Amino acid sequence: MADNSSKSPPPAPLTLDAAIALSRWARGLSANELAQVRQGTIERHIDAGGFICRKGEPASCWIGVIDGLAKMSSDWVTGKTASYAGIPTGGWFGEGSLMKTELRRYDVIALRDTRVACMKRETFHWLLDHSIAFNHAMIEQINERLGQFIGLLESERLLDTDARVARCLSAMYNPVLYPGQNPQLSISQEEIGNLAGVSRQRVNRSLKILEDAGFLHIEYGGLKILDLDGLRSFGG
Q1: Are 107 and 53 in contact (CB under 8 A)?
Q2: pLDDT in tens, 134-157
Q3: Residue 93 and residue 128: Cα distance in Å, rounded?
């Protein structure tokens, strides 16, 4: 019988407090500001396929992914779906709708069982009123989000499917929007297809092309990113 005593136990799930403390926007907050954030933030669990938020509903909170994977998209009356971005662990979204006091302009769907942090609107605006560091973080985040969507528009209009898959993967390593991502990316080909807007079979072909180019290595249950810069520039 194999001796499993040397195997390391799986890491403990990240707590809500730890997720807040590790967030890039929280680094410049004072102890009092962090206490206000913790008091005004709750955790929710969303089953795979469930809506984290829906297009047309009031923006009542700022949302961060504690653990899991989500897709930002919109469904049109024609039956078509536009995929905007994948949101991995550590990503926060929805600040624009909160600042403009408007209805959500997109759906966010959990692609797997996902835990999210929900910061109340009142807490979010309290931070804007009291923390210069938080304001700077929001300016940087919105600027990065704008760049991400300009890149998405370029990808949809100018790049082929293989390059779109490459850009979809590299987008999840944005150091401002999704800091601290591990090169070992736990993601299925079906999830990549959902994010890139292509079939799982087509994703499989694209991943093999990217692997042959030396940008990534396909592993059981995910990928290992070997050349992030190569992914970002592939096909461009």
Answers
A1: yes
A2: 999 999 999 998 888 887 777 776
A3: 16
Rounded Cα–Cα distance for residues 19 and 116 (Å): 10
Which residues have CB under 8 Å from 152's CB, separation 6+? 84, 85, 167, 171
The closest alpha carbon to 223, from 192, 186, 194, belongs to 186
Closest CA to 90 of 149, 152, 30, 173: 173
Ranges assigned E (strand) in 97-137: 107-110, 114-120
Q: Delineate the domains of the chain, giving CATH numbers in brackets.
A: 13-158 (2.60.120.10), 161-236 (1.10.10.10)
Identify the CA nearest to 86 among candidates 74, 61, 67, 69.
69
* Six token digits for residue 4: 């499993």
Q: Which two tokens stand for residue 7?
A: 């195997």
What is the pTM assigned to this prediction?
A: 0.85
Return d(Cα 200, Cα 91) in angstroms, integer: 24
For residue 185, the surrounding DSSP H or E stretch is strand 184-185
How many Å apart are CA 228 and CA 234, to the nearest integer? Answer: 10
